[in-house]
Amino acid sequence: MGRRFRGAVRPNKPEHRVNHRIRFPQIRVVDPDGSVLGVMSPEEGRAKAREYGLDLVEMAPNARPPVCRIMDYGKFKYEQSKAKSAKKNDGPQLKTVQMRPKTDTHDLETKLNRARRFLERGDKVKLVMRLRGRERGYPQRWVQMMHEHVQEHLSDVADVASRPAQQGRMISMLLEPS
Questions:
Q1: 103-159: pLDDT as tens digits
Q2: Nearest Cα residue to 54 out of 119, 37, 159, 5
Q3: What is the DSSP string of 47-71?
Q4: Domain ranges of the chain
């Protein structure tokens, strides 16, 4: 019986086969300009890539025959990593600021200042007030309190996207940058 991998992290498997790692009898080769050179053996493909001074990279391993492109593999990997990082920092996000009805005034100001920074950065902010015990008996009081605090501290940088509303054990409202 073969050994199974039991570690927490799997070893890195390369995403694309490059040059001598391509092991198919026939491959379809595309040149750097994007035109198809035809179906050939991997040795012929590597020879074409050497003529261009580039690498032969397998792009579509599930196609039959697999599609390989002649390109600069290092440059390709770099551009992929840049695209991934750009996607991560992609546009506004939804940030949540949580509070309780009994949150002290200084702590409340600190939380609202954090919400202000998020709004100035261009993110949307969801203010959430969690209710416990007898606090749940007076939701209108907390809705009014939440609305007043937003008018007082954030009216110059935020527009109310959704008014304060009770959802189970919490009251939430959504703010957008103005």
A1: 898 999 999 999 999 999 999 999 999 999 888 888 888 888 888 888 888 989 989
A2: 37
A3: HHHHHHT-EEEEEETTSSSPEEEEE
A4: 19-79, 94-177
Q: Choose between 84 and 55: higher pLDDT.
A: 55
CATH for 94-177, options being 3.40.50.1360, 3.30.70.20, 3.30.110.10, 3.40.50.150: 3.30.110.10
Peptide bond preceding 32 in cis form (omega within 30 of 0): no
CB-CB contact of 33 with 70 (8 Å)? no
Tell me the torsion sign for CA atoms 167, 169, 171, 172.
Answer: negative
Write out pLDDT tens, residues 157-177.
Answer: 989 898 888 888 999 999 999
> At 8, phi and psi to the nearest 5?
-75, -30
The dihedral formed by the CA atoms of 72, 77, 79 and 85, expressed in degrees to the nearest 10: 180
Characterize the bridge pairing of strands 27-30 and 55-60: unpaired
Q: Can you tell me the distance from the alpha carbon of 136 to that of 149, in angstroms, rounded to the nearest whole number?
A: 19
- Amino acid (one-letter) located at 40: M
The 10 Å Cβ neighbour count of residue 82 is 10
What CATH code is assigned to 19-79?
3.10.20.80
